[in-house]
Amino acid sequence: MRRMIKPYECTQCGSTEFDDVDSRRVRCVHCGSLFQLLTDEPKVVINKGAKVVFGRHADVDIRGDIDIQSGADVDIQGKVTVRKGKKKQEFTLKLLQAGSKGNNGI
Question: Is pTM, for the whole model, over 0.90?
Answer without folding.
Answer: no
